[in-house]
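Lab channel / #folding
Pinned by the channel admin:
"Please post every new chain as: sequence first, then the structure tokens as a reply. Keep commentary short and put observations after the output so the thread stays searchable."

First post following the new format, from NK:
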Amino acid sequence: MLDRAALLLCLLALGGCGANSLASAEDSDVQSSLQYDKMACGPLLSQRNALAQRYGLPQEAKPAFSNVPAGFGTVVPDIRSAAERDKQKAAGEIDAMNRSLMRRQCAGAPKKPSA
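Reply from TO:
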């Protein structure tokens, strides 16, 4: 009986690892801002605003991370709805766009946080 429980625990732990884990899914929502540096400021602002409006997000949106205890994010499966996954992916895109806008000091970019 104990062997079966240990085996089940190991299989559950391994089942959550990989591409379907919550940690890897949330990490993939974070995007590089460098991909937006070649885009002119005006069109990038328009694209950011349209994306924020489409998903009902603020223009300063950032991807959210779950409060999973340390070390368990890789074994917890991503059970967010498709709509929530899309919304968090959009938040990651908006954050990347904002970082590009701030770095290039575009008009309409969010203000840099005070230290």
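NK: The two ends are 56 Å apart (CA to CA).
TO: also worth noting, Residues 82-103 form the longest helix (22 residues).
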